[in-house]
Amino acid sequence: MKSLSEIETTAKRASKAAGYSWGVSEETGKCIRFLELFSLPGIKHLNEYFNEKNKIEFENLNLINQNNSSSNKPYCPITLGVSFLDQINVLENLKKIEFKNVAYPIIFISFLSRSSEIIGKKIYVKIDEKKIFLNLNVNIISNFIDQVYPKIANTIEVNILENKDNFTDDEWNNLYKLSEETFVEESESLKKGAAGAGLTDND
Amino acid sequence: MKVELRDPNKIMKLSRLGSFHQSKLSFLRSFLNEFKEWEYKKDLFNLNKNGFGEAVYSFKKNKRVYSLVCFANEIKDEERSDRVIATKWDAAFTLHDGVPTKKDIERLKNEVPKQEVGRLSYKELTLSRANKSVRIYNHVVESLSKGQQPDLNLLSKVGYLYRTTAVYGSGKFGLADRFRIKNREEINGPFRLEMMLVYLVRQFTFDQVNHVAYHKNPKIAVKLDDNICKNLGIGNSTGLGMAPFIVNHPTLLNNWILSREKALKKIREIKNVESQDSYLFINCVKKSLRNITSWNTDSEYQQKKISSLLKDVENFLNFIKKEFNFEIEYPFNKIYQWLEDNTCEECIEYIVSIMMEPYNNIVNPLVREMSSDEEEFFNIPAHRKVEELRNIIEVKYPNILDINFEKKENNKNFWFISKNKEEPRLADRFEEHGSELEQPLAIARDIKKLYHKLLVSKNSLTIAEFLISNSELRHVVRRAFIVEKFPYSEIQDNTIGKDLMPIDMLRLKLSFFGALKFDPRSDKWLRICMFQGAPLPNELKNYDEQWVYKTNI
Predict the structure, then answer these.
(1) What is the chain B residue with the closest CA to A21?
(2) Do B174 and A90 make contact, defined as CB atoms within 8 angstroms?
(3) Max Cα distance, chain B (Å)
């Protein structure tokens, strides 16, 4: 089994050899490491992408808008990913961003996952019909775990979610009430000796 | 009195970093301190009469066990090489997480002796190999088998029976990634498991030499005297492989140096020094003279450094004896100022290291600050502005900006990874091919390039916008934002100039390991000794903390 350190180093060096700058290659190495850590096919897709990159051209998207549509060439997932990562503080305000025609979307996903950590918000992604939750780069949840990941995504929809509870107030209140059964009622004498008691707060 | 931390622009120069010495902060000393309460055991010693076979040694505490698995092999003299391109070694080792099963040992027997071309698993933590110092080893076997102890003069010229030629960890060749074990309390300090491996290898070399001598002449043979064992260490040959590490791990480098600087600052701020502390300090300096006089090297470069070190330390002792009174306020601050005014860099750093000896209360908490979670600082804050980045560079890299990289002499070398051995190498860009595949280790040059680009960019541009058209500078943009928070994270010098001494970079790292007696064999590799004078495993529960200054051979 390859260690994550070997995976990161090899992915970084291969990216440099494929024509990216050292700085971008460092980002790629890190992202592939995360994909493999989350049991996603990072090495497989990076390898396939670099093989194809030798044969066909991909489009570099540097400045991301709300709706991004490539010409007839698919977007390079690495350049797109690095751009997203760098521009996340602006993109956060758009809430929903769409990309048409992206190569090897799983590679792009790893950059989105890191972006989720940077802004401290979950990101919900739809790659055509497939759904993925990115949880602050702590984990990645998808509904197509055993399926083949696509080489091309026709449409990727990125939704930046506001931080909010994942449950109803009723569910919370019921659980909270139950938790209160671990508390003990304090006697009057104990209350008098508690922190702050007996002092003026206007001193 | 408040003493400022020393200026990174002075301390992070290569000549200063290449003058660092071991101290209480060094990893092999903090390893011994951490593991002194652990149970040490020789679990298996299955060698034939010539000393070839397997052995297992372990450290255990509660349910945690670390086991060194050793394989001693027969090799021909002509196959023995300290170079990283070697493929056979006298012995190969791995540190296994837990107790190895028979199946594990069989698996490791096939892989460990192959080193870089073998495959380890997540159950192994470190990997190494070592060669005999044949002259010394044979002499010791010969002497012991005749019932005599070896010639101490001969031993003192080398200081060890074996020298390692590489120690690998952190995910190399399939070894466990650091993240799998990083939360273990006992290894909350850099390179602790590498230190454990080397320490246990040292014991293996004594056991092996005793075993071979015994089988040579069972009736007369004696064991190597414990006191002699104690004064032998483990050698190490180190080449350029170590140099990029300190460039590629900026926050870790910062935490090592910052701990040293914080220790010095706190010691200089002590108003009244207790007499037992000043005595311990002076005693260590005096005893350490033997480490200098027994420091053998053929390197003229190092001989000069040793000679000025010896002269300066003697002057210092003279100053302390005749002119200095420890009863004054802030005596260590006065001492430091005197050192700066009167001695060479090598001596300043030597005495700074010894100043830490009386102060466990200052040093021990700092040992825990010497690791780094590097992932945390990897992301570039791309929302920040060009103006901010330019200011950071002006403040943090003032001397670097003065270097003229248009001059050939300042741009002479390039770092690359050798195809043959996947190891870092340095070459002359004007004479050798391959500079187009240069590794990103010319930080000073690239920082200067970045600065020039920033000068002609709009102040209000965000870093994200700047990077769209300057992707080739992304690696140094990341570094500049790191150095903003971590002042000692960057070597403030040119790592590709004609005057570069790469061994300065190696020496920096090795001093933090705790190495002694740096012996440069060229400007690109050196030999060192580790654990010379250190307590033996069965003495760990109660040992003299200043052992490093009390070697007897």
Answers:
(1) B472
(2) no
(3) 85
Backbone angles phi, psi at B323, to 5 degrees: -120, -10
DSSP one-letter string for B318-346: HHHHHH--TTSSSHHHHHHHHHHHHS-HH
**CB-CB neighbors (< 8 A) of A89 in chain B:** 382-383, 464
Query: For chain A, which residues make up each domain, given as ranges?
Result: 4-160
- The tokens of B553 are what? 């051979």
- Please state, as a whole number, how many other Cβ atoms lie within 10 Å of the Cβ of residue B551: 23
Q: Is residue B312 within 8 Å of residue B347, measured between CB atoms? A: yes
> What gap in Å lies between CA B237 and CA B526, rounded to an integer?
6
- Tell me if B382 and A89 make a contact (CB, 8 A cut-off): yes
Q: Is B474's CB within 8 Å of A21's CB?
A: yes
Residue ranges in chain B whose pLDDT is less than 50: none
Q: State ipTM.
A: 0.89
Q: Select from A92, A91, A108 the least CA-distant residue to A153.
A: A108
Whether B464 has its CB under 8 Å from any CB of chain A: the answer is: yes
B66/B69 Cα distance (integer angstroms): 10
In angstroms, the CA A13 to CA A18 distance is: 9
Furthest CA-CA distance within chain A: 82
Chain A window 14-53: which residues touch B at a Cβ cutoff of 8 Å?
20-24, 26-27, 30
| Contact between chains at A2 and B121 (C-beta distance less than 8 A) | no
pLDDT at position A201, please?
65
| Residue-by-residue DSSP string for B17-39 | HTT----TTSHHHHHHHHHTTSE
- Interface residue A62 vs chain B (CB under 8 A): yes
Q: Nearest C-alpha of chain A: how many angstroms from B147?
A: 49
A2 touches B at CB < 8 Å: yes
Q: Which tokens is B205 given?
A: 């070399």
Measured in angstroms, the CA of B517 and the nearest CA of chain A are apart by 32
Report the b/e string of B452-476 with b at 16+ CB within 10 A: ebbeebeeebbbbbbbbebbbbbbb
Contact with chain B for residue A3, Cβ under 8 A: yes
A1 near B CB under 8 A: yes
Question: Is the CB of residue B468 less than 8 Å away from at least one CB of chain A?
Answer: yes
Residue B385 is classified by DSSP as B
Question: What pLDDT digit, counting tens, does each position of A78-121 carry?
Answer: 999 999 999 999 999 999 999 999 999 999 999 999 999 999 99
Structure confidence at residue A33 (pLDDT): 97
Residues A12, B170, B97: CA angle, nearest 5 degrees: 145
Q: Could you give the CA distance from residue B500 to residue B412 in angstroms, rounded to a whole number?
A: 10
B139 and chain A in contact, CB less than 8 A: no
pLDDT tens-digit profile of B76-128? 888 887 776 678 899 999 999 999 999 999 999 999 999 999 999 999 999 99
CA–CA separation, A55 vs B327, rounded Å?
78
* For range A157-180, the mean pLDDT: 95
Give B515's Cβ-side CA count (13 Å radius): 26
Mutate to test the interface with B, among A6, A7, A22 (most CBs of B within 10 A): A22
Interface test with A, best of B374, B380, B481 (most A CBs within 10 A): B380
Instruction: Give the dihedral sign, CA B60/B65/B66/B67.
Output: positive
Instruction: Determine the residue of chain B that is closest to A61 in CA distance.
Output: B468
DSSP A201: T
Cβ–Cβ gap A21/B475 under 8 Å: yes
C-alpha distance from residue A179 to each of A166, A170, A182 (Å):
19, 14, 6
Q: Which residues of B514-537 are buried (b: 16+ CB within 10 A; e: fewer)?
A: bbbbbbbbeebbbbbbbbbbbbbb
What pLDDT was estimated at residue A193?
73
Quote the crossing angle between the two packed helices A22-37 and B474-485, to the nearest 10°: 80
How confident is the model at residue B422, as a pLDDT?
Answer: 78
